[in-house]
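A further point concerns the way the authors explain their paired sequence and structure data. For illustration, here is how one protein appears when written out as sequence plus structure tokens:
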Amino acid sequence: MTNDIPLRTKKMLLFIMIIGCFFSTLNQTLLNVALTDLMRIFEVKAATIQWLATGFMLVNGILVPLTAFLMKRFSTRQLFITSMFFLFLGSVISAVAVNFGMLLTGRMVQAAGAGIILPLMMTVIL
């Protein structure tokens, strides 16, 4: 079976996936610098605010191995678009959050997208 995709298209697709993976990884750590400000804004303690990072990693850790199953059921394109949608939706929810619970929910949605994109990217490159 021959691969009829031109090299230029392959490079462009790889670049787009790398950008998506970059934003996913950036999203994991970007919030850490704002935790003290968020504690003040949402009037929560350090033990509560740390759930923004811990919850993200928990959901991410669950979805990374689950992605192997998803990759057998859905195409790479479907999973990439879905992961980018979750990252975008989670960012919107987080941006308009009026309370800590809404912000935490946004972070969990973002984590779902990040948990899909990371192993997907590694598999595509391989």
User: Anything to note?
Assistant: Residues 7-125 form one domain. The chain has one domain: 7-125.
